[in-house]
Structure formats: C-alpha cells, structure tokens
Design a protein that fits this description.
The protein has five helices and twelve strands. It is an alpha+beta fold. The strands form three sheets. The protein has a five-stranded mixed β-sheet, covered by helices on one side. A hairpin with a 2-residue loop joins strand 3 and strand 4.
C-alpha cells in the first residue's frame, strides 16, 4: 500500500491477520475505526489459495524424502504423503524440527484413542523425524484388540488395557499373564488386577488373559426345567416357593401335565 511499509502476515491466524491489517491501514483509512455510517469503511480479508511449503520427512517412514504440500497441511497430512511410520517407526514421539531445533513432539495415540487431533501446522523447510519404537508390547489373546502396542516408559498395564479396548467379555478379568524375556529365559509373570496401575510392562512382553473352560454355578439359584414357557435358572432373591418359580418361568407349556 502507498505510504505504508510492507505488512507481514506470515504465521498469523485469519483473525489475527485481519486485526493487523485493520490496525495498520487505519493510519491512512481513518474510516476503519469510525462508528459513523457515512464515514465508516469496512475491511474484508479472503484467501483464494494457500501457498505451498516444502517439508522434509526422515527417519522410520515408508517413503522418506522432501515433499511439497499445502501451507494448510497438518502433521497427519504430511505423514500420509510419506506412507506413515514403518514397522519400527514410532507413533508416540514424532518430532518436528525447525531451524535445527526440536519444537514439537506429537503422540498419535491421543488421536487414535481419544480423537485429539494434532492441531499443529507446518512451515516451509520443517523437518519431520520419526524415531525408532522405544518399547513394544504384544497382546496375544483375551482382549478386544489383540495386536502390538507401543508404550511410553511411564505407562502401565492399565494404559495397555485401555489401548486394547479392554478385556474380551468372556475373559477372566482379575489377572493377566505376561511372558517376559530375561536373557535366554522366558519368565511367566502374573499381574493381579490390584497392580494393573502400578506395574510397568517391559519391552518385548507378551500379554494375555485366559478364558475359563467352565463357570461356577452361583449359589442362591433355583432351576426349573421341562414343560414351562421359560425354563432355566432363577434367583431365589425374588422367589419364595415353587409357585413363584412357575410364575417367573411364565407358567406351564401347553403339553404340561
């Protein structure tokens, strides 16, 4: 603009850019700050096209390299172009480096498990570095999602169970069983439910929950079979005699004697 120095908007949000333009342009267009309908001047800001930026994606990704992407791209967009982390690439400690300085660490598990989108936008010449997995634990059976999980050093078995979606509905939930590598031996660890929060998994642990072959019949139960509408087990909490049991089973069937 004539009579004004250049107005730089790089790095500002849309709202911040509009405020800066209004403040600077009000030096030559006084109507921008006027409340008089005759003298008032309106300012509108629109974006037709975002400029492209160049980012470098290195480390353990499927297709490392230099990528030209939209200036509105997020870390997820950039990782998509590079094919995502590979088999040994971390999802928990993705590092953003700017001018050689690490400015942001992103944990994608927060997005996967809680829907917390990594709302961080990249700038030209940023470097995205995906390091090695530091700790990997395998769930073999007994949970809703039985697969590999990457854990942080401070995370417990409770965190692991949360990532897996919890126990399978038919699994025994009071204890988990862990195969742990100790040198040339594999030790079996049993972790009680009371210790899930304060027990820390080790790298390479194989975790499973067991399924009972049969279930104990609870006490305080009466069973009715034969020619009734709903045969089966009923709680004695609400049944005092045989007649109550027949009523609970919806009465005799048509062929009953």
């Amino acid at each position: 603009f004539d009579k004004l120095a250049p107005i730089f908007l790089s790095g500002l949000s849309f709202t911040q850019a509009k405020i800066r333009l209004k403040n600077r342009l009000s030096n030559i267009y006084t109507g921008l700050n006027s409340n008089n309908d005759i003298d008032k001047i309106d300012l509108d800001l629109s974006l037709i096209k975002a400029r492209s930026i160049v980012v470098n994606i290195v480390g353990n990704v499927n297709a490392p390299g230099t990528y030209t992407i939209s200036g509105f791209s997020s870390i997820l967009n950039a990782l998509f172009f590079a094919g995502g982390p590979n088999e040994i690439g971390s999802y928990r400690d993705i590092q953003i480096k700017r001018n050689g300085i690490n400015i942001k660490n992103i944990d994608l598990y927060k997005y996967f498990t809680e829907g917390e989108y990594p709302n961080f936008y990249l700038r030209d010449q940023d470097v995205i570095f995906v390091p090695n997995i530091a700790k990997e634990v395998i769930i073999s059976s007994g949970f809703r999602l039985n697969t590999k999980f990457e854990l942080l050093e401070s995370e417990s078995f409770s965190d692991l169970i949360n990532y897996s979606g919890g126990f399978n509905s038919k699994a025994f939930k009071e204890k988990i069983f862990v195969d742990r590598i100790n040198g040339l031996e594999i030790e079996l660890q049993e972790i009680n439910k009371s210790n899930f929060n304060n027990s820390i998994p080790h790298d390479g642990d194989i975790v499973r929950a067991k399924f009972p072959l049969e279930y104990n019949i609870k006490e305080n139960v009466a069973r009715i079979t034969g020619s009734v509408i709903l045969p089966g087990d009923y709680s004695l909490d609400s049944i005092a005699n045989v007649n109550d049991l027949i009523i609970s089973s919806k009465g005799f069937a048509r062929d009953a004697l």
